[in-house]
């Protein structure tokens, strides 16, 4: 079943390119640690979800590039064409002349309705090519104007037009300081709107990825390209083909759908986070050996202590003793000690994957009381290795991990809103103060729900 | 890609404009080696063939600036049209007169304004029609005289009426204390009222600051210290490599080139590619928290690059520190000791996001931000550096340090007005006392606002 990737705005397009590039590189990787035949089936499965074949035999990404100004899209199309390994479709992009000016209201209320028909037609044409559509993966940032505003509008439209398809938004969480001054407003408006129409929001935090680049990848002068490549690696480790169950050797037909089923049992809880281990510079890979026990132990502790990478983990944090009520009500202000999960999906790839012991993740103490671990925990094991990592583990989780960042953004946005700063820029395009207040209410509700797990 | 039109009014406006076009051509020439009329060029230039019809792609035939040149006396504009840049403009883009405005805002605004309104609208429409997506008007003028100040602000009104959706960025040169034009305080304050109501964003510039920067550079060059030869192309005050030759250099050119470089850096991210683009509409979105507080203090670094390759380039971090030092600001102000409402860093060249983040972290503690915008930074990364540099930084700040500049203006105004000096010259063209009172009110408003924000800092 096909997954259509919609790349929105500068961020969405830059990351989308890296995702397809990473997947393609992985497909042509000879270090899959599996047989040639196995590799061929892997490649075919990936292509079934993410690529079309055309006459020239160069795979064409199943993606739509949308931006309100032309510079980034033309760069992206060129880079893909030059790679020689894959490319974008000739008519799969839509752009205008003038951007959204970092204004959510402009993206949502002006660009959205104005280009609704053209964009939906473009999507329709793309979708018609496929026998079966699994759903949409929309890559967008929260901080800007196009990705955020137009993204929220488009997600709503897609939900109305394709009620039976899954919609997953890859949301890029901006740096705490120094990207866009009105980023907190844009983020609040985006999240509150997406929550209504999207099935799941997979969040990628720039600050976290930046630390990964600095501490784990040892990059001295980190560029956006480096950050985007790490995000692409993480996404690739989730979306590349996986076996559908332990015994059968068939690759999963509907990764997007299966992911949703595993992770989003309740519509109130849609925020997903992604952790991937190990992460290291490519030239160190040859000199390092991994053991599943070590990797999984670290990953489990990363989950429960809310660590975002494998360095600096707080080993003091332990799950509460099962059967006893939590000692204190968790509040976002206090340092979150133990991270309660609703659901976890563990994706293991590489050598000896069947020997990995994942018992640690089945502990009921990790989860809320209203789900059994058998329902809350899911694992996908594939022995074809990913992106040259002999063994790699990715954990997609629906947990309290985003509580603090979310609360921080809402706090800053509220602080700014209280003084009415910049509000005139939004009311100019039809987003009134009541809309802001509604958005704050929705987010407060989400924060409260996650808090009370 | 969207296009911008430059409207240069008065002597000062046209001289700065002339420097701007020269430097713009130089910049595009250094980037565009193949001579193709690309999207970046399209922003400020049209491509026309020998008959004057526009060509939208392909090889460059003849470039025409998207500009309208207006002056109420002919000298400056004629010189431009006879000078080395004559092919960049055509006669359809000008409006001139012979008599001049006599350093009187009211003559520029009321007399010439009403007389030339239709012609102005027509020229603007023609220029706008050549654009498939007009995003922004750049108005360049001085505040102290008559044409730039009076007619310039009248045109601002026209731009708002006729093209309400197009951004209006105004570069205003404020008079210095020792200005020889007696009526400059009146002209400036009257013009400021218009700027306050009709501009989206104003970049105030003071001649004193430009002069200080020029002196600093001269001192550096003439110091005779070893290793202090600079790459001529990199001097922010010169147009080495441009069309105008050294012989044609005018007395104010060094200072005007600084302003021209400011405008080029401001638009670089919307013309050239980069990993974090910033369009012009993002400037007012991020830096103007309240409609009337739209005065941005600017600073440009580095001012030059050393020619001696054996000397290691000034550390990147030094560039960021300099941008916040009062010696680099283009008005007489010290943003470090005032309150920031918002700050934007437009970086060009070989700089990555980690460099910017490191420097923001480093500088944050020494700067005061208003309580509701503690992390109010906007950044942009453009991959193409300016000519002669490997990287550069333009910092735009919405900071309460503009207050002293405006207060000084108000004081000079009041000194004159108390004696009723020259008032008749101005009010004879306008309803008596009407606008003088309202602008006194406006000045007080600005003072109050600034005080309010200052009171919010802990």
Describe the model:
Chain B: Keywords: Cytoplasm, Cytoskeleton, GTP-binding, Microtubule, Nucleotide-binding. Chain B: It comes from Monodelphis domestica. Chain B: Residues 51-274 form the Tubulin/FtsZ GTPase domain. Chain B: Belongs to the tubulin family. Chain B: It is found in: Cytoplasm, Cytoskeleton. The complex is a heterodimer of chains A (453) and B (458). Chain A has 453 residues and is an alpha/beta fold. Chain A folds into three domains: 2-277, Rossmann fold; 292-401, 60s Ribosomal Protein L30, Chain: A (2-Layer Sandwich), CATH 3.30.1330; 404-451, no CATH class. Chain A has helices at 9-27, 36-50, 70-83, 104-128, 146-161, 183-197, 206-216, 224-239, 255-263, 292-304, 373-376, 403-418, 423-427, 433-451, and strands spanning 2-8, 51-52, 60-61, 63-67, 87-88, 93-95, 133-141, 166-173, 200-205, 271-277, 341-350, 377-382, 391-399. In chain A, the strands form two sheets. Chain A has a ten-stranded mixed sheet, sandwiched between helices. A three-stranded mixed sheet of chain A has the order 2-3-5. In chain A, helix 4 (104-128) crosses helix 5. Chain A is globular. Among the domains of chain B are: 3-50 and 58-221, 3-Layer(aba) Sandwich (Rossmann fold), CATH 3.40.50; 405-456. In chain B, the strands form three sheets. A six-stranded parallel sheet of chain B has the order 5-4-1-6-7-8. In chain B, strands 9, 10, 11, 12 and 13 form a five-stranded mixed sheet that branches. Chain B has helices at 10-31, 39-42, 75-82, 105-129, 147-162, 184-198, 207-222, 253-271, 280-287, 316-323, 353-364, 402-418, 423-427, 434-456, and strands spanning 3-9, 45-48, 62-65, 67-71, 94-96, 134-142, 167-174, 201-206, 297-301, 339-349, 368-369, 377-382, 391-399. With 458 residues, chain B is α/β, with parallel strands linked by helices. Chain B is globular. The interface between A and B is large, with 44 and 43 residues.
